[in-house]
User: Which sequence fits this backbone?
């Protein structure tokens, strides 16, 4: 267990929360940070200062509790303004340039190149979604292939009903979120490790159900025929742009989600679920929101997979290997960071290309790397890059406490890193 | 009569699932972790036995007697070298590390043994069966598997209840720090629990391999069956695991009797129904933890 737990007090618009005062009694090393978001609305509010009231070591013992934060504050310290970890405009501007360059690529590159990049987009999308689940909501799902498969089959089904396949990717993603709602009611009965295997079983049920549907091609699958009228080059270019759009939406969506109210709630839940719940965070609702968003994202990735490959078979689209890819990419890149999945997808794609002729050795290599990363490098490659004095954060979602410059963000990074960062920052 | 036969076969199949599940249940009861590579370790044991049988003259029984202790020792070191380290990082790490291990084992077996199916020949047992009258025949192998499951579960139960190590294991499961204060080395005890789990999963893998053919990709399905048996039976109850395995086996054989394509789906649906309507399982006891 961590020694300190930053706890966000989100659903709170008491007038005092807007005053920029900080009271904290750092009497013990086991400090608990309460961040009142007050009236802050989320993204774009990067220069806002908020209230931090740190209540010492009280949160775990029943006697002090959270009521103390609102009322009597013992041992006030000089004011410490709390700021966003960085400016949204830099991330937004930089990302826009990257996306613009990528969007131009179909005019300049061969289709073989863009095809590889479409696969990269799919991996980025999937890994970002898995990262939202595991890195921020603490939901380790091994069943995300359910939504990859349902997303792909959704595009097929909607195209049978006359929906343009490219539009079908969006419709299918929304349908996945809809299916995820009743699924979550069942899956959320399991916690932790059991949630992981439970989601896997549910994915198998969807897999077997689709296999039994003759109209969708049964066990051998079916081809998407409604795109055959397109010129192949144009089709490849549109597929590329759709893939780029989905990947951009996944990364930008994660970023905006986490800078908003939900992000703060999730950070609190991740650090201490019980404390977050007792200070007013709707824990299950926050987790469910992320689960639905991740289902939509993985559904969109499955849809892009179908429009790029043009045929689908249940055994491969519902394969647990998709979740394996998501997990490996996220763990290697850096779980709990927006940048991690993107970096991990680059590493994955490069390794896959390098060992393309050596059978499944690339998967053995990446799997072994991921096992080692999970144990010895829990913040991943991005954590390695952004550690130390020069903290790099392309997509800042955390907060920093003024007057403690250089000590790093208070609420960002991997779980382990957050705790240590916060405790070193507040003491 | 066909349905009676399906019921008997299903209940006996439950013994195999319970054998798969007891290692999973033990590791969760003691360390609070789910080993996502559980099924793949069973397959690894089967391939190891296959190699022993083809390379030496010891036969299937001899290979079984070699592979199980080797696997138990292997399990001890996997725990001390890998799982213990992952546990010290956090609950997320154990899941990620064991899942990564699962994919690595699958693909390494695929590289080493190719995707062809293999089988272990248990000798005369494979064809011999007990005639129960009517059209009901029970294979000796299925009876032996069920008997082994009962023996293993009873032995585990007695070990945890009566021996000094078993008592310390339960203490370490309840509170590793407090157990440490009175002299129990929780890491060593966790290693022993994992060794037991690996021994039983190797036995389960070998019994499965004698019963039907296997290939490197079947591990995850074994994990799911084991997991379903544990949840249906009730978390943390060893006898519940046997009951859960039997319910799962029953659902599968009855599903198969209705429509062969319905076999796996029927088992999964029973699992989901239990999750929805009786999440505490059939026998919600606390005999392990």
Assistant:
């Amino acid at each position: 267990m961590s020694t300190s737990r930053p706890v966000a007090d989100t659903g709170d618009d008491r007038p005092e929360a807007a005053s920029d005062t900080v009271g904290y009694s750092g009497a013990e090393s086991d400090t608990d940070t309460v961040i009142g978001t007050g009236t802050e609305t989320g993204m774009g509010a990067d220069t806002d200062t908020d209230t931090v009231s740190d209540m010492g070591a009280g949160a775990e013992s029943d006697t002090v509790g959270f009521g103390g934060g609102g009322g009597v504050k013992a041992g006030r310290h000089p004011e410490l303004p709390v700021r966003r970890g960085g400016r949204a405009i830099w991330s937004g501007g930089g990302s826009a340039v990257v996306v613009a360059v990528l969007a131009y690529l179909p005019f300049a590159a061969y289709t073989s190149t863009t095809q590889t990049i479409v696969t990269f987009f799919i991996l980025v999308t999937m890994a970002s979604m898995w990262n939202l689940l595991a890195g921020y909501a603490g939901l380790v799902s091994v069943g995300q292939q359910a939504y990859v498969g349902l997303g792909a089959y959704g595009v097929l089904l909607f195209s049978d009903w006359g929906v343009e396949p490219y539009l079908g990717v969006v419709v299918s993603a929304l349908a996945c979120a809809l299916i995820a709602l009743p699924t979550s009611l069942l899956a959320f009965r399991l916690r932790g490790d059991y949630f992981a295997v439970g989601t896997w079983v549910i994915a198998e049920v969807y897999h077997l159900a689709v296999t039994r549907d003759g109209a969708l091609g049964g066990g051998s699958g079916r081809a998407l025929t409604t795109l055959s009228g397109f010129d192949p080059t144009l089709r490849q270019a549109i597929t590329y742009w759709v893939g780029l759009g989905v990947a951009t939406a996944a990364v930008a969506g994660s970023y905006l989600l986490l800078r908003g109210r939900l992000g703060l709630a999730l950070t609190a839940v991740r650090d201490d679920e019980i404390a977050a719940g007792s200070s007013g965070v709707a824990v299950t609702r926050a987790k469910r929101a992320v689960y639905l968003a991740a289902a939509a994202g993985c559904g969109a990735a499955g849809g892009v997979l179908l429009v790029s490959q043009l045929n689908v078979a249940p055994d491969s689209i519902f394969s647990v290997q998709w979740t394996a890819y998501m997990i490996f990419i996220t763990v290697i890149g850096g779980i709990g960071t927006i940048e991690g999945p993107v970096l991990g997808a680059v590493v994955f794609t490069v390794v896959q290309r390098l060992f393309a002729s050596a059978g499944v050795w690339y998967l053995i290599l990446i799997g072994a790397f991921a096992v080692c990363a999970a144990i010895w490098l829990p913040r991943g490659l991005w954590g390695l890059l952004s550690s130390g004095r020069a903290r790099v954060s392309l997509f800042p979602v955390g907060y920093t406490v003024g007057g403690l410059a250089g000590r790093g963000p208070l609420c960002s990074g991997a779980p382990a890193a957050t705790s240590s960062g916060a405790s070193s920052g507040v003491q | 009569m066909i349905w009676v036969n399906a019921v008997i076969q299903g209940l006996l199949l439950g013994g195999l699932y319970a054998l798969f599940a007891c290692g999973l249940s033990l590791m969760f009861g003691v360390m609070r972790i789910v080993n996502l590579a559980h099924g793949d370790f069973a397959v690894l044991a089967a391939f190891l036995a296959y190699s022993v049988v083809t390379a030496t003259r010891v036969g299937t029984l001899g290979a079984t007697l070699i592979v199980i202790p080797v696997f138990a020792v292997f399990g001890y070191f996997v725990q001390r070298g890998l799982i213990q380290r992952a546990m010290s990082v956090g609950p997320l790490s154990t899941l990620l590390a064991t899942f990564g291990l699962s994919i690595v084992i699958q693909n390494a077996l695929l590289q080493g043994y190719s995707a062809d199916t293999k089988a272990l020949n248990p000798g005369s047992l494979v064809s011999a069966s007990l005639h129960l009258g009517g059209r009901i025949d029970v294979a000796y192998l299925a009876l032996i598997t069920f008997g082994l499951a009962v023996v293993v579960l009873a032995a585990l139960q007695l070990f945890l209840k009566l021996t000094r190590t078993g008592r310390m294991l339960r203490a370490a499961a309840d509170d590793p720090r407090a157990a440490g204060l009175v002299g129990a080395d929780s890491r060593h005890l966790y290693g022993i629990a994992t060794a037991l789990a690996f021994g039983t999963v190797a036995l389960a893998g070998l019994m499965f391999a004698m019963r039907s053919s296997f290939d490197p990709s079947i591990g995850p399905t074994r994990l799911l069956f084991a997991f379903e048996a544990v949840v249906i039976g009730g978390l943390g109850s060893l006898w519940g695991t046997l009951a859960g395995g039997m319910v799962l086996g029953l659902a599968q054989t009855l599903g198969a009797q209705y429509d062969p394509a319905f076999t796996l789906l029927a088992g999964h649906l029973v699992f989901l129904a239990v999750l929805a309507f009786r999440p505490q399982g059939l026998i919600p006891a606390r005999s392990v933890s």
Summary: Chain B has a mean pLDDT of 89. Residues 23 and 197 of chain B are 4 Å apart (CA to CA).
